[in-house]
Amino acid sequence: MKIKLILLFSILAFVLSMPFIFNKSVTITDPHKLDADDNFIINEWVEARESAAPDWNYNLKPVQVSDRVWCFFGALEMPTKENAGDMSNSCYIKGDDSWIAWDSGPSYKFAEQAYAAMIKIANLPVKTVIVSHEHDDHWLGNNYYKEVHGAKILGPKSINVNYYGPKDVNGTKYPGMQTRMIKTLYQDALRKTELVPVDESFEDTTNFTLSGVNMEYVRVGYAHSEEDWFLYLPDDKVVLVADVVMNGRVTSNRDGIVIGQIEALRAIKSRDWNHLVPGHGFITDKTAADESVQYFDLTKTRVLQAIEDGVAADDITKTVTLEEFRDKDLYYLLSPGNVFRAYEELEMYDPDSDEPVVAKKAKKED
User: Fold this and answer.
1) pLDDT per residue over 255-312, tens digit each?
2) Better pLDDT: 299 or 16
3) Which has the closest alpha carbon to 31: 106, 103, 135, 130?
4) Sheet architecture: strand order including 228-233
5) Is 109 helix (H, G, I), strand (E, B) or coil?
6) Which of 124, 188, 314, 315 is such that its CA lies 20 to 30 A from the CA of 194?
7) Strand 206-210 to strand 172-174: parallel, antiparallel, or no bridges (unpaired)?
8) Which CATH architecture fits 55-360?
9) Is the Cβ–Cβ distance between 254 and 38 less than 8 Å?
């Protein structure tokens, strides 16, 4: 009986301590070079995980979101060899004479299989791919559309700045920078995947019409990543927002800033839409952004209050635990890091200043 009680109390103590187990201190000076676990991406080549297995079958099933928008929804997980990187959302928009792809997914094979599913709906080519931001689970399928369809790639210039394309090392051809996907996945999923540059970037929000579809490509700047964009279809009342909105799981703000996220969410809310497709998550109705709004508002409010109360950086994740999100996927893995980085950002926050938080952060680091 005594042993059972000790075991019961041990389990209870472990559960109660979970919000604090993953506490850590990090200093981010070059955010785009960090992977999902805050480890630096090393540009040395790692031997490929060779596989004689057939091509990975993603078993993709498109879900219709509106009259001309279909999406593929990924798992609420980090990228692993078991999910082959299928952990983000990507979409197809049906134009008059072509499909427009929004984010191409984690690999050539993913994009190839997504298109095979879409031509069962309408046998149209993909002439344009539009990319939301530089995280590689959203655009490593680009070279399928470039090589097979001759598609034009529109996206953030940060992709071309922070990544490089195919490289020959001592006579061996490698598929560009070894991002977290390239390091994580096996060859049955990665076959033919190569990094290709964005063909055209924009300096600011741009309106255009592709294959009869009116679009607004909205620049929100530094939010979830170094350079984030979302796509608004005013005639369809649909907004494709990628990772500035997630639901059902906690976001990873390893490259982002809280103030930028809040401003991005305000820009999204200002549009007239009935359907919103997040970067991760399955909710696409009018409530789709609510979790993200709550998460970043609570983070900002509580971290600023903790700073005012004199809480030290090393104690911030014990003080601000965001218990409202305990039941969301990846809470224990990601939320403490988000809180710590919010502390680093918000200790310099001045709501009356016109200077961006990013500029202040850079000054402090210098």
Assistant:
1) 999 999 999 999 999 999 999 999 999 999 999 999 999 999 999 999 999 999 999 9
2) 299
3) 135
4) 206-210, 213-221, 228-233, 238-246, 275-280
5) helix
6) 124
7) unpaired
8) 4-Layer Sandwich (3.60)
9) yes
Give the phi and the psi of residue 313 in degrees, each rounded to 5.
-55, -40
- What distance in Å separates the CA atoms of residue 35 and residue 104, rounded to the nearest whole number? 19
The Cα–Cα gap between 143 and 150 comes to: 9
Which pTM does this prediction carry? 0.82
Over residues 121-148, the pLDDT tens digits come to 999 999 999 999 999 999 999 999 999 9
Q: Where are the domains of the chain?
A: 55-360
Are 255 and 32 spatial neighbours (Cβ–Cβ below 8 Å)? yes
Q: Which of 198, 262, 264, 276 is nearest to 229 (CA)?
A: 264
Residues 6+ apart with CB under 8 A from 281: 73, 76, 89, 245, 246, 247, 248, 249, 288, 291
- What angle in degrees, to the nearest 10, is found between the helix axes of 290-308 and 331-346? 50
Site of tokens 């549009």:
271
**Whole-angstrom distance, CA of residue 182 vs CA of residue 194:** 9
Structure tokens at 120: 């069962």
- Cβ atoms of 153 and 118 closer than 8 Å: no
Is-contact 141 111, C-beta < 8 A? yes
Distance CA 292, CA 276 (A): 13
d(CA 319, CA 350): 22
